[in-house]
């Protein structure tokens, strides 16, 4: 990564301070991310309905008929579901990794546009997509691992729900309802991952591009709407140095605390 001084390139009178417009999260990326996860969860849910519920149903019928021995729910019921989840998790991860790549490209363009707008300079010669390769590799690993644990979690939830229902002798209708609740939980988790990871990506990219340009401090910018948490509202307009603890949760910079939509506006000092 080529490090450069954006202040030197822009050449303004000494003592001038200019804030770069912040590059915001793109909501369509969050939506695409969530869609990839939802598609994975929906297919796991439908296989559960098509292959596991019928097994449970016949188990319950046999129990009612009081035959001598009937097989209770066991691990063999879930092998196919786990295999499907593994396969779907790889597909979802690939889709998400493409989204991260595209977002990084979009961010590079947007960052260059902010420099042009605020300072009238062209960064084409000093900024490139390759600058982000190392970071993206780490981001891809982080996202892949989150998606993998989401897939494993849903299979585990199905398995535990079926066992618990079987032991309690619940009806198929009750089992369906319990599974629906579990799928609701994993869907909310998928939504949170999509929102949180796109926001973290954007926040990381803002920091990387600013630090690359020799920008050492930033001002905290909230979304200025009713959803901003009071703690972050009180930080709006504060100036921090990159790497310095902020007043947010764990001293994190904007966009890093869970569900945080705040942004860092880089301050270019001449
Ligand atoms: Zn925030």
List keywords for this structure.
single chain, 270 residues, alpha+beta, four-stranded antiparallel sheet, 6 helices, 4 strands, 61% helix, binds zinc ion
Summarize the structure.
The protein is built from six helices and four strands. The chain is α+β, with helices and mostly antiparallel strands and 270 residues long.
Description:
It is a single chain. 61% of the residues lie in helices and 7% in strands. By secondary structure, the chain is α+β, with helices and mostly antiparallel strands. The chain has a domain at 25-212. It has a four-stranded antiparallel sheet with strand order 1-4-2-3, with helices on one face. Helix 2 runs parallel beside helix 4, helix 2 runs antiparallel to helix 5 and helix 4 (133-168) runs antiparallel to helix 5 (172-212). The longest helix is centred in the middle third of the chain and has 41 residues, at 79-119. The two termini are 23 Å apart. It binds zinc ion (ZN). Zinc ion is lined by residues 222, 232, 260-262.
Ranges where pLDDT stays below 50 over 5 or more residues in a row are: none
Q: What share of residues are in beta strands?
A: 5-15%
Structural class: alpha+beta
Gyration radius from CA atoms, angstroms:
25 Å
Bound molecules: zinc ion
Count the helices. How many? Answer: 6
Mean pLDDT: 95
| Biggest sheet character | 4 strands, antiparallel
By DSSP, the count of extended strands is 4
Instruction: State the order of secondary-structure elements, H for helix, E for strand.
Output: HEHHHHEHEE
What strand line-up does the widest sheet have? Answer: 1-4-2-3
Question: Quick one: overall form?
Answer: elongated
Q: Which range best describes the helical content: under 10%, 10-25%, 25-40%, 40-55%, 55-70% or over 70%?
A: 55-70%
- Distance linking N and C termini: 23 Å
